[in-house]
Amino acid sequence: FLMERKAHVKFNRKEVMLAKLRKSCSCTPQKLKNFLMDFFPVLRWLPKYRCKEYIWGDIMSGLVIGIILVPQAIAYSLLAGLKPIYSLYTSFFANIIYFLMGTSRHVSVGIFSLISLMVGQVVDRELLLAGFDLNDDASPALGDGSLQNDNLSNTTAFNLTTVGINAKCGKECYAIGIATALTFMAGVYQVLMGIFRLGFISMYLSEPVLDGFATGASLTILTAQVKYLIGIKIPRSQGHGMLVITWINIFRNISQANLCDVITSAICIVVLVTAKELGDRYKDKLKFPLPTELVVIVVATLVSHYGKLNEVYESSVSGAIPTGFIPPKLPEFNLMLRVALDALPLAIVSFVFTVSLSEMFAKKYAYTIRANQEMFAVGFCNIIPSFFHSFATSAALAKTLVKTSTGCQTQISGVISAMVVLLVLLFLAPLFYSLQKCVLACIIIVSLRGALRKFRDVPERYHVNKVDTVIWVVTMSASALVSTEIGLLVGIVFSMLCIIVRTQRPRTALLGQIQDTSFYEDDLEYENLSTVPKVKIFRFEAPLYYANRNYFLKSLYRLTNLDPNLEAARRKKFEKKEKQHLKNGNYTTANGLGIGETTLQLVPKQIDFQALVVDCSSISFVDTTGVNTLKEILKDYKNLNVSVLLACCNPSVIDSLKRGGYFGKDFGCMQEMLFYSIHNAVLFAKGQK
Questions:
Q1: What DSSP string describes 565-621?
Q2: Which Gene Ontology cellular component terms are annotated (predicted)?
Q3: Where in the chain is the domain with CATH 3.30.750.24?
Q4: What's the number of CA atoms in the CB half-sphere (13 Å) around residue 578?
């Protein structure tokens, strides 16, 4: 029987588009109010804030995150190749803006190691191209808007008219100029993606790609910090293969290691790792995480200051961190053009991490977020701070987990964290002058534990899904050995190729009947299945399109043990020989048979079936090539007196077959060619005998 399809009302797309355009372009007070509330979600939830219920959790989580943010911000400045003050600016502005525009109640948006690394790689490249020395211990240069004491002014300034800055600008000035231009462009891309609703791009970053990318980048981050751990002075490597080049330089200069830095690093790593392990083990008993990083920084700064480690042992220190805010400045347009391409992967990675974390915690705590608004929020978290000498931001998993574990209820906690950072910016920043860089490197390396532990999960990942493991390994290797941007691109392309290969060579099977039922399954996978006499049931587990057409035919011919084209050619050849014998007056056939036995000889023994049922339940769509392929086998098998029946086709496949003329012009034979279950097709085939 044929089920009657519903009649769908056809819409005039032009009229629908015009109606939507008129509606979106109209402006009423209510619509303006809704727009503002959608664009600034804080206007919706803040008036409904349950102060007595939420305030203490928000204050506690905000204070804890603020305490964690300060040492991390100072440490991650090493990754970005910038002064610590800019990291503090970034942490402050990002929390304030996300409080106004974000839809997630729990994510912590701010400085993130992976984003800092991507910014740092672009900054280092542009500094090198501009002729600056990448040695971190070189005297800092003065430039526009930099806050330095007068006693640090004995520096060399470069005239950078060739790269778009017409005034004399030092290394620090040019570095933050590159970072802000890059951040501004990344924010513009994110806002444009939000306007054009391009959030679907994040779907192409699968979990293995993101995990592999993060792990590979973590190896790069770890490698970049080793020179600070042991106190050697080597140039910051640039370009592809920087991980290998950096390790070669480290081993070449290992004899120059600073013993003071080595001892300090060993002590700090032991303390930090021990505290982290104890915190993980007893996290259910602790009301809030131990502020180990802050304690280590305070103690290390005091020891370095009173022990005069910089003067006596030449240990590298953070240097002067000014207080206050630098006047806002528009990012240089010419620099934006230089980094426009670099900003695209930065924008995508920043958005994907923010939205994925937002969705994860929204699902956990039973509320919804708006992905498009998240794109606007993280976009403006980059655009606006770029005017205030800040660089790119993203949500960070570790800090978000801390927020939720310390009672965070809303983004009020982000404002509290921003106030803690503001306190440091206004009053406490100069106190970190004597803080050793090796201590900051230890904090960064210990923070990578989660990403580096992914290596332990490889055997389990391989057991679950081999293809995903290969994608993870390829993405991780490319990100670590080539570059982070290339690694991300390689991961996306490779994962897409894996999908294409899977559809090009999918599983195929002949089905047998489950005894005493009307169900059918793979004959090679299940025991005690009975074959249906004179009927072959073929399953193809993928869409049928131009790329897998040949594999479909080869698999069908192999499993049914019959290639209709070869069989037809063999029959024609045999008939030709028979006609030749008869023409010569020889009534014995070419095989030594009599004329009466010729008919039997024409039906070969390998054709042990009279009907072929194609299970289309796994075929999600067919293109023109797929329709022509089905028409081809219909014709070829018909010439051998074998009927082809289709079963379990979805409506889109049926429509494609109709448009392609598979059922003929008037669809008169459709009920004899198409069935809604395999069993119906089998019963019909048996009735044809």
A1: HHHHHHHHHHHHHHHHHHHTT--B-TTS-BGGGHHHHHS-TT--EEEEEEE-TT---
A2: apical plasma membrane
A3: 508-570+606-687
A4: 17
What pTM was computed for the model? 0.81
Q: How far apart are CA 89 and CA 63, in angstroms?
A: 17
**What pLDDT was estimated at residue 294?**
83
What are the residues facing 513 on neighbouring strands? 520, 530
For residue 641, give the amino acid letter: N
CATH homologous superfamily, domain 508-570+606-687:
STAS domain (3.30.750.24)
Contact 104, 394 (CB under 8 A): no
Tell me the C-alpha distance between 425 and 177, whole Å.
20
| Separation of alpha carbons 189 and 196, rounded Å | 11
Contacts of 450 (CB under 8 A, 6+ apart): 397, 398
Classified as helix, coil or strand, 7 is: coil
- The segments of the chain whose pLDDT lies below 70 read 1-3, 24, 135-168, 287-289, 585-606, 668, 689
Fill in the DSSP letter of residue 205. Answer: S
The one-letter amino acid code at 586 reads N
pLDDT at 239: 72
Q: Return the SS3 of 366.
A: coil
**What is d(CA 518, CA 210) in angstroms, rounded to the nearest whole number?**
44
Residue among 186, 240, 224 at smallest CA distance from 490: 240
Quote the strand ranges of 426-528, DSSP E. 508-514, 520-522
Among candidates 236, 184, 465, 461, which has minimal Cα distance to 340? 184
